Amino acid sequence: MQKIFRSEKIEWSTELYSPRHYPIRLLTGDCFWFYSHNQVRVGFSGGAAGGWRSTGAYIRGGMPDRKVKLPDAVQLTWLSETERKFYQVQIELPREQILDQFHAVVLTLEYQKKTFAHQDGIDFAFEPGGRVYLRTSGARVVELGHFQAKELAMEWWYFSKAEGFDGTWVTPEKYYEMSFNKLPERIQKQYQEKTIPVGRWLAYSENKYPWKILVSDLKIEAYYIQYVNAEQYLVTHDMLQQEQSKEKHVPAVITLYYEINNTRYKHHVYFTDGDWGKGEEPEDDLAIFNLFSGFFRKATMSAILEFQLLDGKMIAVLHNGQNKVSVKIFNQNVERLKKDQY
Hints:
Low-confidence stretches: 1-5
Structural class: alpha+beta
Strand content: 35-45%
Number of strands: 21
Strand order of the largest sheet: 4-3-2-5-6-12
Number of helices: 7
Largest sheet: 6 strands, antiparallel
């Protein structure tokens, strides 16, 4: 693998995310280099509707055709379809932080093998209400920050031309009606009653708690964790002490790697109301998030998320010596692994 040095020009890809049933249409994403005579322009557009951790997106552009200096800023202009609102935001990129992450080589999983890799993606996730989240991706998914956009008055002729349809035939009323009719009834009702969950994903992002993982009576080799704010990464045995000591977001999915009688296993545990291959729903993470936030409202000390294997199934409990609650596992499955397989 080629090592990336800070002084080098870089390449990157871009992905878009939005909660399912709250699709967005990104009209323009423009990169800017201030105080520079750089002739390269990196623009992109697209759409997203697959989920907070699942892309379900299409994108045009979003990556340079050759290595360039990392932009200083981006401007994003999009339509939030379910809300029927346009937004625009300017984001000054945290260049040093991004370059640090692109430079660092970290351990991750790829094709069921442990491997060293680096970050190579700059991604954007769009929440109803006009808040956009900046992430890097590649070896792991890391959230760098979130930014509040302003609502924008958009001429319909401009939007229709940008999206490639005849705005005199497909009027705003017709366009929104077609989009609205595709939504589940509960989401339609949110629009009608003005109860779209603005701020839900901000809560997922901003709330961290002092908790750590304990697996009773098993030799844990590593685990791969996905959080409700979409961050995800591998934690090896050597990293456990450092990882356990820090505050963390609420977990959504944890994959435990352990050994029993010289046989290695991979055990997927879903705290979110989802499963492999199931479409991500916007309410899937609410149960586990509400459990953690409710627990730590009453807690004055750190907690342990303890797993126990009983008859081939994991059970989970969150406790801290003061309080103890059972944690619902919505789905789980186990695979037997070969040597060095992940």
